[in-house]
Amino acid sequence: MKTMITHFIKKHHLLTKQATVLVGVSGGPDSLALLHYLHSIRQEWEIRIIAVTVDHQLRGEASLEDLRYVKRFCKTWDIEFVGTSVDVPSYKKKHKLGTQLAARKLRYKFFEEQMELYNADLLMLGHHGDDQAETMLMRMVRSADSQALAGIPVKRDFATGAIVRPFLCVTKEQIWNYCEVHHIKPRLDPSNHETTYTRNYFRKHVLPLIKEKNSNIHTTIQHLSETLEADQAYLNRQAQEMVDTIVMFDKERCQVSFEIKLFKTYAFALQRRAFHLILNYLYTDLPKDLSYVHEEQFFALLHRKTGNAQLDFPSGLKVEKAYNQLKCHFQDDLHTDSYHMLLKIPGKTVLPDGSVFTTEYVDEYQEQSEQTFILQSGQAALPLHIRTRKHGDKMRWKGLQGSKKVKDIFIDAKIPRSERGTWPIITDNNGEILWLVGLKKGLLEKQADNAAFIQLNYEKGNM
Protein backbone atom coordinates (compact mmCIF):
# COMPACT_ATOMS: atom_id res chain seq x y z
CA MET A 1 0.00 0.00 0.00
CA LYS A 2 2.84 2.41 0.80
CA THR A 3 4.28 1.98 -2.69
CA MET A 4 0.86 2.58 -4.23
CA ILE A 5 0.35 5.81 -2.27
CA THR A 6 3.84 7.12 -3.05
CA HIS A 7 3.24 6.51 -6.76
CA PHE A 8 -0.11 8.35 -6.52
CA ILE A 9 1.54 11.30 -4.76
CA LYS A 10 4.22 11.59 -7.42
CA LYS A 11 1.74 11.18 -10.28
CA HIS A 12 -0.42 14.07 -9.02
CA HIS A 13 2.42 16.18 -7.57
CA LEU A 14 0.85 16.17 -4.11
CA LEU A 15 4.02 16.71 -2.08
CA THR A 16 7.28 18.60 -2.38
CA LYS A 17 10.41 18.35 -0.28
CA GLN A 18 10.66 20.56 2.82
CA ALA A 19 6.90 21.23 2.78
CA THR A 20 4.95 22.13 5.92
CA VAL A 21 2.10 19.62 6.06
CA LEU A 22 -0.97 19.82 8.27
CA VAL A 23 -2.82 16.53 8.67
CA GLY A 24 -6.48 16.36 9.66
CA VAL A 25 -6.58 13.55 12.23
CA SER A 26 -9.76 12.29 13.92
CA GLY A 27 -8.37 9.17 15.59
CA GLY A 28 -10.04 6.83 13.07
CA PRO A 29 -8.19 4.33 10.86
CA ASP A 30 -7.96 6.55 7.76
CA SER A 31 -6.37 9.58 9.40
CA LEU A 32 -4.08 7.59 11.73
CA ALA A 33 -2.84 5.50 8.80
CA LEU A 34 -2.18 8.73 6.87
CA LEU A 35 -0.32 10.23 9.81
CA HIS A 36 1.78 7.06 10.15
CA TYR A 37 2.54 7.02 6.42
CA LEU A 38 3.76 10.64 6.52
CA HIS A 39 5.83 9.85 9.61
CA SER A 40 7.48 7.03 7.67
CA ILE A 41 8.53 9.32 4.81
CA ARG A 42 9.29 12.40 6.92
CA GLN A 43 13.09 12.19 6.71
CA GLU A 44 13.15 11.24 3.04
CA TRP A 45 10.98 14.22 2.06
CA GLU A 46 12.31 16.55 4.82
CA ILE A 47 8.77 17.60 5.70
CA ARG A 48 7.36 19.23 8.81
CA ILE A 49 4.22 17.42 10.03
CA ILE A 50 1.56 19.00 12.25
CA ALA A 51 -1.47 16.93 13.28
CA VAL A 52 -4.70 18.94 13.60
CA THR A 53 -7.64 17.48 15.54
CA VAL A 54 -11.13 18.90 16.08
CA ASP A 55 -13.50 17.73 18.82
CA HIS A 56 -17.03 18.48 17.57
CA GLN A 57 -18.63 17.98 21.01
CA LEU A 58 -21.16 15.57 19.55
CA ARG A 59 -20.36 12.53 21.72
CA GLY A 60 -19.47 14.17 25.01
CA GLU A 61 -16.44 12.71 26.77
CA ALA A 62 -15.95 10.10 24.03
CA SER A 63 -15.21 12.69 21.32
CA LEU A 64 -12.90 14.61 23.68
CA GLU A 65 -11.05 11.36 24.35
CA ASP A 66 -10.50 11.00 20.57
CA LEU A 67 -8.58 14.27 20.71
CA ARG A 68 -6.49 13.13 23.67
CA TYR A 69 -5.84 9.80 21.95
CA VAL A 70 -4.42 11.53 18.86
CA LYS A 71 -2.32 13.77 21.05
CA ARG A 72 -0.74 10.70 22.73
CA PHE A 73 -0.01 9.15 19.33
CA CYS A 74 1.71 12.35 18.19
CA LYS A 75 3.84 12.40 21.33
CA THR A 76 4.91 8.80 20.69
CA TRP A 77 5.82 9.54 17.08
CA ASP A 78 7.34 12.97 17.85
CA ILE A 79 4.79 14.85 15.72
CA GLU A 80 3.54 18.36 16.46
CA PHE A 81 -0.09 18.46 17.59
CA VAL A 82 -2.83 21.12 17.58
CA GLY A 83 -6.30 20.37 18.93
CA THR A 84 -9.49 22.27 19.62
CA SER A 85 -13.11 21.76 20.65
CA VAL A 86 -15.95 23.41 18.69
CA ASP A 87 -19.58 23.72 19.72
CA VAL A 88 -21.37 22.10 16.78
CA PRO A 89 -24.76 21.73 18.55
CA SER A 90 -24.99 25.49 19.22
CA TYR A 91 -23.66 26.42 15.77
CA LYS A 92 -26.13 24.19 13.91
CA LYS A 93 -29.02 25.61 15.95
CA LYS A 94 -27.96 29.22 15.37
CA HIS A 95 -27.42 28.81 11.63
CA LYS A 96 -30.19 26.22 11.05
CA LEU A 97 -27.84 23.63 9.56
CA GLY A 98 -27.69 19.85 9.63
CA THR A 99 -25.20 18.22 12.00
CA GLN A 100 -22.79 17.08 9.30
CA LEU A 101 -22.70 20.44 7.50
CA ALA A 102 -22.30 22.42 10.72
CA ALA A 103 -19.44 20.17 11.82
CA ARG A 104 -17.74 20.50 8.43
CA LYS A 105 -17.96 24.30 8.42
CA LEU A 106 -16.42 24.62 11.89
CA ARG A 107 -13.78 21.99 11.16
CA TYR A 108 -12.61 23.65 7.94
CA LYS A 109 -12.64 27.06 9.58
CA PHE A 110 -10.17 25.75 12.16
CA PHE A 111 -8.10 24.08 9.43
CA GLU A 112 -7.91 27.38 7.57
CA GLU A 113 -6.80 29.26 10.68
CA GLN A 114 -4.02 26.75 11.34
CA MET A 115 -2.88 26.82 7.71
CA GLU A 116 -2.44 30.58 7.98
CA LEU A 117 -0.83 30.37 11.41
CA TYR A 118 1.86 27.94 10.26
CA ASN A 119 1.98 29.29 6.68
CA ALA A 120 1.47 25.66 5.67
CA ASP A 121 1.87 24.34 2.16
CA LEU A 122 -0.58 21.46 2.44
CA LEU A 123 -3.53 20.14 4.39
CA MET A 124 -3.67 16.37 3.96
CA LEU A 125 -6.92 14.51 4.57
CA GLY A 126 -7.55 10.78 4.74
CA HIS A 127 -10.40 10.38 2.24
CA HIS A 128 -9.96 7.07 0.45
CA GLY A 129 -11.17 5.31 -2.69
CA ASP A 130 -14.36 3.98 -1.07
CA ASP A 131 -15.22 7.53 0.04
CA GLN A 132 -14.83 8.60 -3.57
CA ALA A 133 -17.09 5.81 -4.83
CA GLU A 134 -19.75 6.60 -2.23
CA THR A 135 -19.62 10.31 -3.07
CA MET A 136 -20.05 9.83 -6.79
CA LEU A 137 -22.82 7.26 -6.37
CA MET A 138 -24.72 9.62 -4.06
CA ARG A 139 -24.31 12.50 -6.51
CA MET A 140 -25.56 10.36 -9.39
CA VAL A 141 -28.68 9.59 -7.37
CA ARG A 142 -29.34 13.16 -6.21
CA SER A 143 -28.01 15.43 -8.97
CA ALA A 144 -28.88 16.06 -12.61
CA ASP A 145 -25.88 18.35 -13.12
CA SER A 146 -22.82 16.83 -14.76
CA GLN A 147 -20.61 19.37 -12.98
CA ALA A 148 -21.52 17.75 -9.66
CA LEU A 149 -20.29 14.31 -10.71
CA ALA A 150 -16.55 14.96 -10.63
CA GLY A 151 -16.29 13.63 -7.06
CA ILE A 152 -13.78 14.49 -4.35
CA PRO A 153 -10.83 16.40 -5.86
CA VAL A 154 -7.35 14.98 -5.41
CA LYS A 155 -6.05 18.51 -4.93
CA ARG A 156 -7.65 21.93 -4.55
CA ASP A 157 -6.53 25.38 -3.43
CA PHE A 158 -7.10 26.16 0.24
CA ALA A 159 -5.91 28.95 2.55
CA THR A 160 -2.12 29.35 2.16
CA GLY A 161 -1.70 26.23 0.03
CA ALA A 162 -3.82 23.29 -0.98
CA ILE A 163 -5.86 20.37 0.31
CA VAL A 164 -4.56 17.03 -0.97
CA ARG A 165 -5.92 13.50 -0.56
CA PRO A 166 -3.23 10.88 -1.21
CA PHE A 167 -5.41 7.95 -0.03
CA LEU A 168 -7.93 8.19 -2.87
CA CYS A 169 -6.01 5.40 -4.58
CA VAL A 170 -6.66 2.82 -1.82
CA THR A 171 -9.69 1.15 -0.22
CA LYS A 172 -10.94 1.06 3.33
CA GLU A 173 -9.94 -2.60 3.54
CA GLN A 174 -6.37 -1.80 2.53
CA ILE A 175 -6.23 0.91 5.20
CA TRP A 176 -7.41 -1.54 7.87
CA ASN A 177 -4.73 -4.00 6.76
CA TYR A 178 -2.13 -1.24 6.99
CA CYS A 179 -3.24 -0.46 10.56
CA GLU A 180 -2.96 -4.11 11.54
CA VAL A 181 0.51 -4.51 10.05
CA HIS A 182 1.78 -1.41 11.87
CA HIS A 183 -0.06 -2.13 15.14
CA ILE A 184 -2.22 0.98 14.91
CA LYS A 185 -5.40 0.77 17.02
CA PRO A 186 -7.86 3.41 15.81
CA ARG A 187 -10.80 4.76 17.78
CA LEU A 188 -14.19 4.18 16.16
CA ASP A 189 -17.10 6.59 15.89
CA PRO A 190 -20.39 4.70 16.46
CA SER A 191 -22.23 7.11 14.14
CA ASN A 192 -20.34 5.57 11.20
CA HIS A 193 -22.57 2.51 11.52
CA GLU A 194 -25.89 4.39 11.61
CA THR A 195 -27.72 4.17 8.29
CA THR A 196 -29.76 7.31 9.06
CA TYR A 197 -26.95 9.20 7.30
CA THR A 198 -27.13 8.83 3.49
CA ARG A 199 -23.42 8.10 3.13
CA ASN A 200 -23.53 5.28 5.65
CA TYR A 201 -26.45 3.72 3.79
CA PHE A 202 -24.45 3.69 0.54
CA ARG A 203 -21.42 2.40 2.46
CA LYS A 204 -23.24 -0.56 4.00
CA HIS A 205 -25.83 -1.49 1.37
CA VAL A 206 -24.94 -0.10 -2.07
CA LEU A 207 -21.17 -0.18 -2.51
CA PRO A 208 -20.76 -3.85 -1.38
CA LEU A 209 -23.17 -4.94 -4.13
CA ILE A 210 -21.17 -3.07 -6.77
CA LYS A 211 -17.91 -4.54 -5.48
CA GLU A 212 -19.31 -8.01 -6.10
CA LYS A 213 -19.24 -7.14 -9.81
CA ASN A 214 -16.03 -5.09 -9.76
CA SER A 215 -13.75 -5.33 -6.74
CA ASN A 216 -11.56 -2.62 -8.25
CA ILE A 217 -14.41 -0.12 -8.57
CA HIS A 218 -12.54 2.50 -6.52
CA THR A 219 -9.82 2.69 -9.19
CA THR A 220 -12.38 2.93 -12.00
CA ILE A 221 -14.32 5.67 -10.26
CA GLN A 222 -11.17 7.59 -9.34
CA HIS A 223 -10.11 7.59 -13.00
CA LEU A 224 -13.61 8.76 -13.97
CA SER A 225 -13.47 11.52 -11.36
CA GLU A 226 -10.12 12.79 -12.63
CA THR A 227 -11.17 12.84 -16.31
CA LEU A 228 -14.44 14.57 -15.46
CA GLU A 229 -12.57 17.12 -13.37
CA ALA A 230 -10.18 17.88 -16.24
CA ASP A 231 -13.05 18.26 -18.71
CA GLN A 232 -14.99 20.48 -16.32
CA ALA A 233 -11.97 22.68 -15.67
CA TYR A 234 -11.54 23.34 -19.40
CA LEU A 235 -15.22 24.01 -20.04
CA ASN A 236 -15.46 26.26 -16.98
CA ARG A 237 -12.56 28.36 -18.24
CA GLN A 238 -14.32 28.77 -21.59
CA ALA A 239 -17.58 29.64 -19.85
CA GLN A 240 -15.84 32.24 -17.69
CA GLU A 241 -14.45 33.88 -20.83
CA MET A 242 -17.97 33.87 -22.29
CA VAL A 243 -19.42 35.50 -19.16
CA ASP A 244 -16.64 38.10 -19.01
CA THR A 245 -17.33 39.00 -22.64
CA ILE A 246 -21.13 39.29 -22.80
CA VAL A 247 -22.58 39.58 -19.28
CA MET A 248 -22.94 42.99 -17.63
CA PHE A 249 -22.48 42.99 -13.84
CA ASP A 250 -23.91 45.67 -11.56
CA LYS A 251 -22.29 45.14 -8.16
CA GLU A 252 -24.14 48.01 -6.50
CA ARG A 253 -27.55 46.54 -7.27
CA CYS A 254 -26.36 42.91 -7.29
CA GLN A 255 -27.79 42.24 -10.71
CA VAL A 256 -26.66 40.95 -14.11
CA SER A 257 -27.94 41.40 -17.64
CA PHE A 258 -27.07 40.23 -21.14
CA GLU A 259 -28.35 40.15 -24.73
CA ILE A 260 -30.22 36.89 -25.30
CA LYS A 261 -29.33 36.54 -28.99
CA LEU A 262 -25.63 36.90 -28.23
CA PHE A 263 -25.85 34.47 -25.29
CA LYS A 264 -27.45 31.85 -27.55
CA THR A 265 -24.64 32.01 -30.12
CA TYR A 266 -22.40 30.04 -27.73
CA ALA A 267 -22.42 26.24 -27.40
CA PHE A 268 -25.09 24.98 -25.03
CA ALA A 269 -22.46 23.37 -22.79
CA LEU A 270 -21.03 26.87 -22.18
CA GLN A 271 -24.48 28.42 -21.78
CA ARG A 272 -25.25 25.98 -18.97
CA ARG A 273 -22.01 26.76 -17.18
CA ALA A 274 -22.51 30.47 -17.69
CA PHE A 275 -25.91 30.11 -16.03
CA HIS A 276 -24.27 28.55 -12.96
CA LEU A 277 -21.52 31.18 -12.88
CA ILE A 278 -24.21 33.87 -12.86
CA LEU A 279 -25.99 32.15 -9.96
CA ASN A 280 -22.72 31.90 -8.02
CA TYR A 281 -22.21 35.63 -8.53
CA LEU A 282 -25.70 36.56 -7.38
CA TYR A 283 -26.10 34.20 -4.43
CA THR A 284 -23.79 34.37 -1.41
CA ASP A 285 -24.79 30.75 -0.68
CA LEU A 286 -26.75 28.73 -3.21
CA PRO A 287 -30.23 27.94 -1.80
CA LYS A 288 -30.98 24.30 -1.04
CA ASP A 289 -34.18 24.46 -3.08
CA LEU A 290 -32.34 25.60 -6.22
CA SER A 291 -32.41 22.62 -8.61
CA TYR A 292 -32.15 21.52 -12.22
CA VAL A 293 -35.81 22.55 -12.60
CA HIS A 294 -34.75 26.20 -12.36
CA GLU A 295 -32.13 25.60 -15.02
CA GLU A 296 -34.80 24.18 -17.33
CA GLN A 297 -37.07 27.16 -16.62
CA PHE A 298 -34.21 29.56 -17.35
CA PHE A 299 -33.51 28.12 -20.80
CA ALA A 300 -37.21 27.81 -21.60
CA LEU A 301 -37.48 31.54 -20.85
CA LEU A 302 -34.61 32.33 -23.24
CA HIS A 303 -36.45 30.59 -26.06
CA ARG A 304 -39.91 32.05 -25.40
CA LYS A 305 -41.26 34.17 -28.23
CA THR A 306 -43.20 36.52 -25.96
CA GLY A 307 -41.54 39.89 -25.40
CA ASN A 308 -41.75 40.04 -21.61
CA ALA A 309 -41.81 37.32 -18.97
CA GLN A 310 -40.49 36.72 -15.47
CA LEU A 311 -39.34 33.79 -13.32
CA ASP A 312 -39.16 33.69 -9.54
CA PHE A 313 -36.09 31.86 -8.25
CA PRO A 314 -35.40 30.95 -4.59
CA SER A 315 -34.49 33.66 -2.05
CA GLY A 316 -36.27 36.39 -4.00
CA LEU A 317 -34.20 36.29 -7.20
CA LYS A 318 -36.11 37.61 -10.22
CA VAL A 319 -35.21 36.55 -13.76
CA GLU A 320 -36.79 38.94 -16.27
CA LYS A 321 -36.91 38.68 -20.05
CA ALA A 322 -37.56 41.92 -21.88
CA TYR A 323 -37.41 41.18 -25.60
CA ASN A 324 -33.71 40.65 -26.36
CA GLN A 325 -32.54 41.49 -22.83
CA LEU A 326 -32.41 39.22 -19.81
CA LYS A 327 -31.92 40.64 -16.33
CA CYS A 328 -31.45 38.87 -12.98
CA HIS A 329 -31.90 40.84 -9.77
CA PHE A 330 -33.20 40.60 -6.22
CA GLN A 331 -35.16 43.84 -5.91
CA ASP A 332 -38.89 43.81 -6.58
CA ASP A 333 -38.40 47.11 -8.37
CA LEU A 334 -35.02 47.98 -9.77
CA HIS A 335 -35.84 51.68 -9.91
CA THR A 336 -37.11 54.41 -7.65
CA ASP A 337 -40.80 55.00 -6.91
CA SER A 338 -43.10 56.92 -9.22
CA TYR A 339 -42.79 60.72 -9.27
CA HIS A 340 -44.67 63.86 -10.34
CA MET A 341 -43.13 67.32 -10.38
CA LEU A 342 -43.30 70.66 -12.18
CA LEU A 343 -40.77 71.35 -14.88
CA LYS A 344 -38.64 74.44 -14.18
CA ILE A 345 -38.73 76.90 -17.09
CA PRO A 346 -36.03 77.99 -17.56
CA GLY A 347 -33.81 75.78 -15.42
CA LYS A 348 -32.89 72.19 -14.56
CA THR A 349 -35.12 69.46 -13.16
CA VAL A 350 -33.39 66.37 -11.76
CA LEU A 351 -35.30 63.08 -11.66
CA PRO A 352 -34.87 60.41 -8.94
CA ASP A 353 -32.72 58.24 -11.24
CA GLY A 354 -30.29 61.12 -11.93
CA SER A 355 -31.71 62.05 -15.33
CA VAL A 356 -31.85 65.79 -16.03
CA PHE A 357 -34.29 67.98 -17.97
CA THR A 358 -32.89 71.36 -19.01
CA THR A 359 -35.38 73.91 -20.30
CA GLU A 360 -34.70 77.27 -21.94
CA TYR A 361 -36.38 79.93 -24.03
CA VAL A 362 -35.06 80.13 -27.61
CA ASP A 363 -35.70 82.71 -30.33
CA GLU A 364 -36.59 80.36 -33.14
CA TYR A 365 -37.66 76.80 -33.88
CA GLN A 366 -34.70 74.43 -34.03
CA GLU A 367 -34.34 70.92 -35.40
CA GLN A 368 -35.33 68.31 -32.84
CA SER A 369 -33.86 64.93 -31.87
CA GLU A 370 -35.20 62.09 -29.75
CA GLN A 371 -33.74 63.86 -26.72
CA THR A 372 -35.20 67.31 -27.42
CA PHE A 373 -38.71 68.75 -27.66
CA ILE A 374 -39.76 72.29 -28.70
CA LEU A 375 -43.10 74.03 -28.32
CA GLN A 376 -44.42 77.55 -28.16
CA SER A 377 -45.74 78.82 -24.85
CA GLY A 378 -49.21 79.19 -26.38
CA GLN A 379 -49.40 75.62 -27.68
CA ALA A 380 -49.98 74.01 -24.27
CA ALA A 381 -51.38 74.95 -20.89
CA LEU A 382 -48.51 75.94 -18.62
CA PRO A 383 -46.87 75.01 -16.31
CA LEU A 384 -45.48 71.78 -17.75
CA HIS A 385 -45.40 68.65 -15.61
CA ILE A 386 -43.10 65.64 -15.61
CA ARG A 387 -44.36 62.38 -14.17
CA THR A 388 -44.43 58.61 -14.47
CA ARG A 389 -47.26 56.81 -16.21
CA LYS A 390 -50.76 56.33 -14.85
CA HIS A 391 -53.22 53.57 -15.53
CA GLY A 392 -55.07 54.25 -18.78
CA ASP A 393 -52.64 56.89 -20.08
CA LYS A 394 -53.23 57.72 -23.74
CA MET A 395 -51.66 60.18 -26.18
CA ARG A 396 -52.25 61.62 -29.62
CA TRP A 397 -49.86 62.64 -32.36
CA LYS A 398 -50.00 63.92 -35.92
CA GLY A 399 -51.28 61.36 -38.40
CA LEU A 400 -52.83 59.09 -35.77
CA GLN A 401 -56.55 58.46 -35.91
CA GLY A 402 -57.73 58.91 -32.34
CA SER A 403 -55.34 58.09 -29.50
CA LYS A 404 -53.15 55.19 -28.38
CA LYS A 405 -52.46 53.75 -24.96
CA VAL A 406 -49.01 54.45 -23.55
CA LYS A 407 -48.85 50.78 -22.55
CA ASP A 408 -49.16 49.76 -26.22
CA ILE A 409 -46.53 52.30 -27.27
CA PHE A 410 -44.10 50.71 -24.80
CA ILE A 411 -44.88 47.25 -26.16
CA ASP A 412 -44.41 48.35 -29.77
CA ALA A 413 -41.07 49.97 -28.87
CA LYS A 414 -40.03 46.84 -26.95
CA ILE A 415 -39.36 48.76 -23.75
CA PRO A 416 -38.57 46.32 -20.89
CA ARG A 417 -41.36 46.08 -18.36
CA SER A 418 -38.94 46.96 -15.56
CA GLU A 419 -38.28 50.37 -17.17
CA ARG A 420 -41.86 51.39 -17.95
CA GLY A 421 -42.84 52.33 -14.41
CA THR A 422 -40.33 55.19 -14.21
CA TRP A 423 -40.28 56.31 -17.85
CA PRO A 424 -40.52 60.16 -17.98
CA ILE A 425 -43.67 61.67 -19.45
CA ILE A 426 -44.16 65.41 -20.12
CA THR A 427 -47.71 66.77 -19.85
CA ASP A 428 -49.30 70.20 -19.86
CA ASN A 429 -51.29 71.58 -16.92
CA ASN A 430 -54.45 69.88 -18.23
CA GLY A 431 -52.83 66.45 -18.20
CA GLU A 432 -52.42 66.20 -21.98
CA ILE A 433 -49.35 64.08 -22.80
CA LEU A 434 -46.99 66.16 -24.92
CA TRP A 435 -43.89 63.98 -24.96
CA LEU A 436 -43.29 60.33 -24.12
CA VAL A 437 -39.58 60.99 -23.84
CA GLY A 438 -37.48 59.35 -26.51
CA LEU A 439 -40.49 57.60 -28.08
CA LYS A 440 -43.37 59.83 -29.16
CA LYS A 441 -44.12 63.57 -29.42
CA GLY A 442 -47.73 64.58 -28.96
CA LEU A 443 -50.15 66.67 -30.96
CA LEU A 444 -49.82 70.41 -30.20
CA GLU A 445 -52.17 73.28 -30.71
CA LYS A 446 -51.69 75.53 -33.76
CA GLN A 447 -48.47 77.55 -33.62
CA ALA A 448 -48.84 81.22 -32.60
CA ASP A 449 -47.08 83.96 -34.54
CA ASN A 450 -45.13 85.80 -31.84
CA ALA A 451 -45.04 83.34 -28.92
CA ALA A 452 -41.66 82.36 -27.48
CA PHE A 453 -40.24 78.91 -28.03
CA ILE A 454 -39.52 76.60 -25.10
CA GLN A 455 -36.87 73.92 -25.70
CA LEU A 456 -36.64 70.83 -23.49
CA ASN A 457 -33.41 68.82 -23.45
CA TYR A 458 -33.25 65.36 -21.81
CA GLU A 459 -30.09 63.71 -20.51
CA LYS A 460 -30.45 60.18 -19.14
CA GLY A 461 -28.91 59.46 -15.76
CA ASN A 462 -26.46 56.69 -14.90
CA MET A 463 -28.02 55.53 -11.63
Find the CATH superfamily of the largest domain: HUPs
Q: Summarize the main sheet.
A: 6 strands, mixed
Main CATH class of the largest domain: Alpha Beta
Principal-axis shape equals: elongated
Number of domains: 3
Percent strand = 15-25%
Amino- and carboxy-terminal Cα gap:
63 Å
Keywords: ATP-binding, Cytoplasm, Ligase, Nucleotide-binding, tRNA processing
Catalytic activity: cytidine(34) in tRNA(Ile2) + L-lysine + ATP = lysidine(34) in tRNA(Ile2) + AMP + diphosphate + H(+)
Binding site for ATP: 26-31
Domain Lysidine-tRNA(Ile) synthetase C-terminal: 384-458
Short overview:
By secondary structure, the chain is of the alpha+beta class.
Structure overview:
It contains 14 helices and 22 strands. By secondary structure, it is of the alpha+beta class. The protein has 3 domains: 2-230, 3-Layer(aba) Sandwich (Rossmann fold); 247-329, 2-Layer Sandwich (Uridine Diphospho-n-acetylenolpyruvylglucosamine Reductase, domain 3), CATH 3.30.465.60; 340-459, no CATH class. The strands form 5 sheets. Strands 3-2-1-4-6-5 form a 6-stranded mixed beta sheet, with helices on both faces. A 5-stranded antiparallel beta sheet has the order 7-8-11-10-9. Strand 19 (425-427) and strand 20 (433-436) form a beta hairpin. The radius of gyration is 33 Å and the shape is elongated. The model has no long low-confidence stretch (mean pLDDT 88). It catalyses: cytidine(34) in tRNA(Ile2) + L-lysine + ATP = lysidine(34) in tRNA(Ile2) + AMP + diphosphate + H(+). One of its GO terms (cellular component) is cytoplasm. Its main location: cytoplasm. It is found in: Cytoplasm.
